[in-house]
Amino acid sequence: MRHCLFGLLMAASVAAHAEIQTQEIPYKAADGTEMIGYYAYDDAIEGPRPGVVVVHEWWGLNDYAKRRARDLAELGYSALAIDMYGEGKNTEHPKDAMSFMKAALADADAAKGRFNAGLDLLRQQQQTDTRKLAAVGYCFGGKVVLDMARQGVPLAGVVSFHGALATETRAVPGSVKARVLVEHGAEDSMVSTDDVAALNVEMVKAGADYRFVSLPGAKHGFTNPGADAFKEKGLDLAYNKQADERSWNDMRRFLEETFSR
Which SUPFAM superfamilies match (predicted)? Predict the structure, then answer.
């Protein structure tokens, strides 16, 4: 009953057609790095509502990550696209993206600190219900949110879209507090079948509330309409409208269920 009521309230909020408010908010990570967050919310909704962190692809905090924050705001959430690289930097060059990603992941504690700085910023927004927090991530960001779940960051749920699945710090029994949803392209050549199998074993052994969805025909980057442009740069990426829509609907239901508990 609570689940149905929550869904109806969200639908009513979306139907109000109010303006989605957005703003860039500077903040600092624990290591002193200057960060930029992109915050979005629907001003037709009164009072606090669940908050969702968005973690960008390996390209950095670009227009796509910001668009996803707006999409979540349209669903009725308080949404913040955070910055894992610093100063809001982003790129369209694979070599630069790889360099940024490696630097961000070189120190696991620093990466966690940067995520938590963004999570704290989301908590500080008056529209955020601090008792109900989740995170979604794409590509590099998918790995980040999975790692935060593995490390027991206090989140109600995490969703990984075409995320990297391998990790050096595996979950242990009881460590995963968040519900976990993984949306994975069945034709993703950038994630090995061994990594998929290892994640499944890891989550089962950890006793996690976990769901893995394999999307037929989908390659890496399947949610991003701009993915096809990178084929010319030698990357096996492709947008897949059906997989994009299905995975988004999966996420929508997952968040509704998670926040209704």
Answer: alpha/beta-Hydrolases (SSF53474)
